[in-house]
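[job 0412] stage=complex_fold ligand=glutamine status=START
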Amino acid sequence: MSDLIRLSAAELGERLASGDVSSVEATQAHLDRIAAVDGAVHAFLHVDGERALETAADIDRRRAAGDRLGALAGVPIAIKDVLVTEGMPSTAGSRILQGWLPPYDATPVRLVREAGMVPLGKTNMDEFAMGSSTEHSAYGPTHNPWDLERIPGGSGGGSAASVASFEAPLALGSDTGGSIRQPAHVTGTVGVKPTYGAVSRYGSIALASSLDQIGPVTRTVLDAALLHDVIAGHDPHDSTSIPEPWPSMADAVRRADVAGLRIGVVKQLDSDGFQAGVRQRFHEALELLERQGAEIVEVSAPHFEYAIAAYYLILPAEASSNLAKFDSVRFGLRVTPDGGGTVEQVMAATREAGFGPEVKRRIILGTYALSAGYYDAYYGSAQKVRTLVQRDFDAAFASVDVLATPTAPTTAFKLGEKLDDPLAMYLNDVATIPANLAGVPGISIPAGLAPEDGLPVGIQFLAPAREDARLYNVGGALEQLLLAEWGGPILDRAPDLSTHELLATEEGAV
Ligand code: GLN
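[job 0412] stage=complex_fold status=DONE, emitting structure tokens
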């Protein structure tokens, strides 16, 4: 395996800046890796090697000409297919958008391009970001690089798997209920959901507009911070975008120090419902932080247990409205019934053929929850619960600086295991959803491997809105402590896919 693909984005950025390696070489190394392993992993829906190499060559020319370039200039990046990309297919994992070429770049994509980064392609995801396993993609599932028969998490399984299998040093994801953090948990990577409004949603194909947030998917906390610094900031195209400037997240990582930090452990999310190995690694991580001077206290968030129920009313309600625009007229697929049909019949045939079962389930649920006779009973009640969850956060943050929870209840489960059981699938989000309901930021970083199955486990930290830097402080500090404990990155222990025996047997392997 080429050394270039094992480097973190920060390290690669330094090698590029020193002239030691070119962006074309770094980009080619990642394209070669994709060609070697993506037949088995299936992290990408679309790879544009030609354009990536052109972009890389352009950055190399600019560097040679003495242009001042940022820390990540010339570094390749993978982009979740929920973000629209000019001239590059953008499907959000749905059949209904097959073949659609957007006329513009989403703001986070524009910003990574302006930072000189090199988009490699678009990553696989559950259709319209609905799911926790990437199995709801219309284009087939992504496989977890730790065990190809297991799920890579969802909805952003493609972004997490691309980073965990060294196909890309880092990626962009979207998190509506955990789709950046839960995939990070099951793949041994770092994932951040910024404060709601920190990163523009302009050009992000909306799932639930009051919950969606774009964020970094990386192998190190510093890489997440560097990418966060690139994509965060005010955007007049998004009316929920926060106008105030942000401090440097990379500085927070470099100055990481947890002495005196008060960390609240959410009692309700430290229970028997979580796999033993997940809890064990969680508590070991907290002990490491305590030894560095952090204070660990128990806090109660009594309404978190209703968060999933509220989320699965609010999310479908907003999604049913957002997805109404896929009407066969404006974007992508158009199916005309045999012998022709009225506008309504074409629309119905297109939506019938273009949407998968999970999307249809949520559209029906959302339409029902918003209907005149039921609005107060369902949608109205869910909004009240949302307020109670926000108050739980306010009360907790009155006495602690950050909250800590395991990121998700279990390690990666087998592909197919929960596909026919929507409720079991929804329960994956129990620890991640509260942050989206309250708009607060969250990070998941690797906490080790569960002793019972040897699979990765994440620890999540949550901070008050606009205090994203606190997550980078505690995440950066814990990462250093764990690296010393493990003697190297956790992903060094993942199977080397280029020689993995499963590669030969995997369907569609190259
Ligand atoms: N698993 C959650 C859901 O299915 C999270 C989705 C997300 O964050 N995009 O809604």
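The chain has 18 helices and eleven strands.
[job 0412] exit 0
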